[in-house]
């Protein structure tokens, strides 16, 4: 039997026996943050590898862009959860893959009730999100080369992409969403402290 082929004893998913080679899936930390940070870091590592090894850029570009898109989608959904909680609205994030639709919900339903931010900043964020959404409206274009049948079409319309420009712009978007995460987290902590103080004083 060829040792390079799967054999009858192979088990793909096994419990960790050595922390050096294991990962904790049931980590009690914020799940959305772990997922979004994981995709963000994977995108960063792929970009760094492509810059150092340009030969692989033509294949790694697909998971690279997908990872960053997945980060943005998860981060907006996480901000929606955090925002709804902060404003005491018993809503959940939308089961939606459109970055633009998710962003518009966050901007117009949640952010407007939490913080006043320069409209030019928000418009610029929305402009970049709209560009990403145009390129990949349903998070499929960088996962599959063609659309669903029966009449398949190529998913990606452009011929090339400037990796450095993509990374520079995506980093600005990441900075904005990290800022939003920190902002809502801080406000929630202040709110929790205020409520705790009220309980201590009156009960």
Give a summary of the structure in a few sentences:
The protein has 203 residues and is mainly α. Helices cover 60% and strands 0% of the residues. It has helices spanning 31-52, 57-86, 99-110, 119-135, 163-202.
Give the number of helices. 5
Strand content: under 5%
Largest sheet: none
Sketch the topology as an H/E string, one letter per element. Answer: HHHHH
> Termini, distance in Å?
73 Å
Structural class: mainly alpha
Find the count of extended strands (DSSP E, 2+ residues).
0
Helix-strand blueprint:
Blueprint: H1 31-52, H2 57-86, H3 99-110, H4 119-135, H5 163-202
How does this structure look, described?
By secondary structure, the protein is mainly alpha-helical. It has a domain at 30-147 and 154-164. The protein has five helices and no strands. The longest helix has 40 residues, at 163-202. The protein is globular. The relative contact order is 0.10.
Annotation keywords:
203 residues; mainly alpha
């Amino acid at each position: 039997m060829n040792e390079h082929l799967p054999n009858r004893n192979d088990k793909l998913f096994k419990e960790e026996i050595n922390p050096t080679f294991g990962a904790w899936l049931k980590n009690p930390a914020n799940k959305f943050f772990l997922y979004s940070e994981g995709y963000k870091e994977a995108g960063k590592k792929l970009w760094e590898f492509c810059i150092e090894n340009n030969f692989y850029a033509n294949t790694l570009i697909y998971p690279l862009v997908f990872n960053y898109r997945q980060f943005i989608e998860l981060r907006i959904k996480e901000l929606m959860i955090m925002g709804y909680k902060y404003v005491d609205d018993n809503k959940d994030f939308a089961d939606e893959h459109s970055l633009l639709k998710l962003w518009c919900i966050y901007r117009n339903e949640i952010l407007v009730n939490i913080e006043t931010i320069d409209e030019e900043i928000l418009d610029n964020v929305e402009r970049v999100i709209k560009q990403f959404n145009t390129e990949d409206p349903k998070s499929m274009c960088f996962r599959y080369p063609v659309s669903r049948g029966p009449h398949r079409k190529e998913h990606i319309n452009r011929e090339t992409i400037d990796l450095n420009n993509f990374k520079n712009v995506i980093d600005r978007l990441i900075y904005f969403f990290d800022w939003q995460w920190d902002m809502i987290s801080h406000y929630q902590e202040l709110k929790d402290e205020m409520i705790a103080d009220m309980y201590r004083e009156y009960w």
